[in-house]
Amino acid sequence: MMDGTSLIWMIVLPFVGSAIAAVLPSNARNAEAWLAGFVTLAVLVMASASYPAVAAGGAIRNTIEWVPSLGLNLSLRMDGFAWLFAMMISGIGFLVVLYARYYMSPDDPVPRFFSFFLAFMGAMLGIVLSGNLILLVVFWELTSVFSFLLIGYWHHNANARDGARMALTITGIGGLGLLAGVLLLGHIAGSYDLDRVLASGELIRSHDLYLPALLLILLGTLTKSAQFPFHFWLPNAMAAPTPVSAYLHSATMVKAGVFLMARLWPVLAGSTEWFWILGFCGMMSLALGAYFAIFQQDIKGLLAYSTISHLGLITLLLSLGSPLGAVAAIFHMVNHATFKASLFMAAGIIDHETGTRDIRRLSGLFKFMPITATLAMVASAAMAGVPLLNGFLSKEMFFAEAIETHAISVLDTAAPYVAVLASAFAVTYSIRFIHGVFFGPAPTDLPRVPHEPPFLMRFPIMLLVLACILVGTIPGITIGPFLHTAVSSVLGAETPQYSLSVWHGFNVPLLMSTVALVAGVILYLCLKNYLANCEEGPPIFRRLKGQRIFERAMVTVSWRWARFVEFRLGPRRLQPQLRLLVFVAFAAASWPLYSLGFEPGRFTFLGADPAFAGVWVLGMLCAIGAAYQAKFHRLAALILLSGAGLVTCITFVWLSAPDLAVTQLLVEIVTTVLILLGLRWLPKRVEDADALAAASRGARLRRVRDLALAVAVGFGMTAIAYAVMTRTPPATIADYFLEKAYSEGGGRNVVNVILVDFRGFDTFGEITVLAIVALTVFALLRRFRPASDSVDSPEQQRNQTAFDEAQPDREAGDTASDWLMIPAVIMQWLFPVIIVFAAYLFLRGHDLPGGGFAAGIAMAAAFILQYMAAGTRWVEDRLKVLPVRWIGAGLLMAAITGAGSWLFGYPFLTSHSRYVDLPLIGEVPLASALFFDLGVFSLVVGATVLMLIALAHQSIRRHRVRTASAAVEEKA
Amino acid sequence: MELILAIGIGVFVGSGVWLLLRPRTYQVIVGLSLIAYGVNLFIFSMGRLQSNAAPVLASATIDPADYTDPIPQALVLTAIVIGFATTALFLVLLLVSRGLTGSDHVDGREPN
Q: What is the distance in angstroms between the Cα of B106 and the nearest Cα belonging to chain A?
């Protein structure tokens, strides 16, 4: 277990446990607790077992390469400092699990709690064990996410939701800053590897980018550790279940910030910027946190502000840049975790057994729960820095450092006074907590009758308090060696001489402690009566709430500014947007032509075929006619549009593109049918000369502007197209394709070979798009509801039906079928002919114009003709088309053909070709690309038919709905 | 030849842009189809114009000068199919939008 693999297990195991915990039944409180207990204990054992290797002076490392070229590796590293944290995380984690088993109510959904809890633990272990800075940031963000989920655990409670959101916003912004800072740091050091970064301290501090990197990293650490001015999220996070507060918001997560600052201390500390930023933030947090804590009425609020204050103390110690300060900081991290976790648990017990956490309502609980009260008193004394407890030792070290002069400045001069003042405040709020809750008259209006909790719920507190006493009385034996390993792994050769003894003789720090103790007691006596009745929050500052400012900022950014931007940049109307788009496209194309000079060449009609010119005159008339008629005469516009399409098709034939011509022609047919089917659902629009004349000036102006834009774009296209066409082409890869098409692709039709072979993957993507579009069309039409004025049958159909019904020997619909009698017979007989034609197009595709696309659309046309000839019901009674299967089969066949080349060790879609003699048909080129093309064919058939049928079905569906409702009416 | 085709492309795209900026969905779909024709021809013309030179190989010995450029043709073939797909999708969208809002205006409601 001494090797690196245990490091991986220490991180993986909690996540695995989390996944298991998530799937256990919701009332399995005991199973969950056993699972979580086992996981935490296993991690604790693994961490303990690694101590000999760590204490021997080295760090345990384990690196799994991921993207080595970018310096991104999954590298884990455990030195003494990381070990200390891993022990704290797993040890306190185990105690919190035990506590949570009794704290959580049977009604709470415990799987969620333990699942998040274990995942958080894994992420936290990831932070301390990361040997790569990027990996560290990833775990860092994970802790933010799980903290969010845990704070919001009781999500029916608005406070929990708000607190969770605020914590995530603040720590998330910090995490983003940290990522940027770490990237800068890695850039300076040339590696994200922690060992390399730690070794390049001089280089980093003297680099130009040091200040931005420092600012960004500190943004991350100060938000995470809830330091001034980002402290306000922590008190709001107290809406979390108390085990969460004890674990995340006192012992572990908020320690991540100070952990990272200590981790990078050898690299970043020592500069003036470091001293000023951290010194100021730390001192403000220390003093204000302690001051605010005095005036809290909620026990957990008091503890939260006290946490801010203690973390401020650690930050201040780190800011000094002296090795002794760093020692004191690391020592205090451990001490604070022990007494604060036990105090949170005690607060949770009080809440659990009495139903309230309000100090004004609580009093005299000592009689009801003497053991809990005694434990809480010892822990509070440690928090206040009473001698013979662990808090006293680190506080003495802090005082000793505060009176030293590190850099001559206001901050340094103020440090000892602020230290004493904050310690006095700490004494005051500690006494307030104990005296207010446990002493005084018996409580009167509590929701429940208080009593001692179960032994096992108290047990974690007992262990932690015992640790406080042992460390406080015999520090040299209990914590000494471990602390030394941790400190020397951070400071290396700079590790100073320090003494952990309880008694240092009569000196200035002792005097400061005494003054603080006495002053704190006096302050409490003075404030006692005021505090018993006052509102929540300290005087003067009560009005100034970080939370309020935060919320106002959030509203401004996410509501006012967002609305403003949307209002300014996102008009609800499509036309101005399109106009802008077209204009920008036009300007973007014109600008380089204008600035670099543009010579379209001499315009000449020389050598033009008059027939070609004639065709194009028709084409242009069609286009302009379609543009003119599209509003009031949709059918005419559709016919004119098809005319333009035909001219395009003829142009392709004329200019040596038979494949394009075939495909264009077939697509033209299908598109026209599709639009014809859709026309029926559009509203009637009658041309009204008066209304047109009465159009407002604005509307007319818009039309003129659009016309100008359209004409400008048209001229632009003409000029560019002409300029390109009259230039000699540069050498392109066309020659390559022409030369290799037959020898390597096995086909003579180069366009088809490009599509199914050289650029087969593009085609694969394209048919996938086609399949998606067809399915989308189908899905959209499944829930189609026509507008109310289109529900009735068209006038013509009504007239026909009326006529048919009036004649005794006719049935409804006879007129229409009579009218189509001959075309219907032709269309039905054409069915096999078109299928053969499609097969022909398909088989010749590789060598001659044709191919899967064209064949597929032809085949689809065969089906559509049947629908048109005989009606939807008649066809579907006789023919099962199942277009979705065609699509699926096509996609699958194309993919399998492509993947088949893997079997022979070639890349995806490599094709193989040979000629095969088919009976009756003759020699056929049989490239593996043919199967790919078959997939294309099948998919195109399926997609086209699916779209057309889905649209065609709308008319009979409406009919069905009406007959069904008519039947209901008859019954009634 | 070149000038005729160039003017034709210009007229197609110009008419399409005009329709694109109109308020009715049907006008927009016709406009998009016209633009698609114009753009397809434009891309196609990047291979220069040549008659009777289809890229269908006649013999084993190949002189690239005898054939027109197959690449723009392959691109346009793809574009035609995708153009069909987008037209179909847009058509259905306009029908559904018309059914839901009762209006065939591009904004889904009649202007005030």
A: 6
A946 by DSSP, 3-state: which? Answer: helix
Burial code of A167-203, b = ≥16 C-beta within 10 A, e = fewer? Answer: bbbbbeebbbbbbbbbbbbbebbebbbbebbbebbee
Interface test with B, best of A583, A705, A717, A764 (most B CBs within 10 A): A717
Mutation to test the B interface, candidates A669, A751, A778, A785, most B Cβ within 10 Å: A751
Chain A residue with Cα closest to B71: A734
What tens digit of pLDDT does each residue of B78-92 get?
899 889 999 999 999
pTM: 0.67
Which amino acid, B38? G
Beta bridge partners of A76: A62, A130
Backbone angles phi and psi of B56, in degrees to 5 = -120, 115
**What CA–CA distance (Å, rounded) separates A669 from A456?**
80
CA separation for the pair A846, A436 (Å, rounded): 91
* A39 confidence band (pLDDT: 50, 70, 90): very high
| Beta carbons of A678 and B49 less than 8 Å apart | no
| Shortest Cα–Cα distance, A625 to chain B (Å) | 9
Q: How far is CA A316 from the centre of its chain?
A: 35
Q: Read off the pLDDT of residues A712-767 as tens digits, 9 standing for 90 and up.
A: 999 999 999 988 888 887 877 777 888 777 777 777 888 888 888 788 888 899 99
* Of A909, A666, A942, A930, the residue nearest A764 (C-alpha): A909
Residues 6+ apart with CB under 8 A from A713: A582, A585, A586, B13, B14, B17
**Which A residues in the span 833-892 are in contact with B, Cβ-Cβ below 8 Å?**
847-849, 853
The tokens of A594 are what?
């204008």
Cβ-based contacts under 8 A for chains A and B: 310
Chain B residues closer than 8 Å to A742 by CB: 57, 60, 62
DSSP A237: G
Cβ contact, residue pair B18, A710, below 8 Å: yes
Report the 3 state secondary structure along A810-876.
CCCCHHHHHHCHHHHHHHHHHHHHHHHHHHHHHHHCCCCCCCHHHHHHHHHHHHHHHHHHHCHHHHH
CATH assignment of B2-48+68-101?
A: 1.10.287
CB proximity list for A638: less than 8 A, separation 6 or greater: A626, A672, A675, A676, A679, B30
Please, are residues A131 and A75 in contact by the beta-carbon 8 Å criterion?
A: yes
Return the axis-axis angle of helices A390-403 and A508-533, rounded to nearest 10°.
110
Q: Do B93 and A631 touch (CB under 8 A)?
A: no
Q: What b/e sequence results for A52-74 when a residue is b if at least 16 CB atoms lie within 10 Å of its CB, and e otherwise?
A: ebbbeeebbbbeeeeeeeebebb
Q: How many helices (H) and strands (E) does chain A have?
A: 42, 4
Per-residue pLDDT of B31-70, as tens digits, reads: 999 999 999 999 999 888 888 777 777 766 677 777 888 8
The Cα A122–Cα A112 span in angstroms is 15
- State the smallest CA–CA distance between residue A614 and chain B in angstroms: 10
DSSP strands (E only) in A862-939: 913-918, 922-927
Q: Is A77 helix (H, G, I), strand (E, B) or coil?
A: strand
Structure tokens of A493? 């050769």
Q: How are the residues of chain B apportioned to helix, strand and coil, as percentages rounded to the nearest 5? A: 65, 5, 30
A620 in contact with B, Cβ within 8 Å: yes
Give A361: exposed, middle or buried? Use CB within 10 Å, 0-12, 13-18, 19+.
middle
Is B7 in the A-facing interface, judged by CB distances under 8 Å?
A: yes
Q: Is the distance from CB of A678 to CB of B95 less than 8 angstroms? A: yes
SS (H, E, C) A122-157: HHHHHHHHECEHHHHHHHHHHHHHHHHHHHCCCCCC
- Which residue's entry shows tokens 């899905």? A779
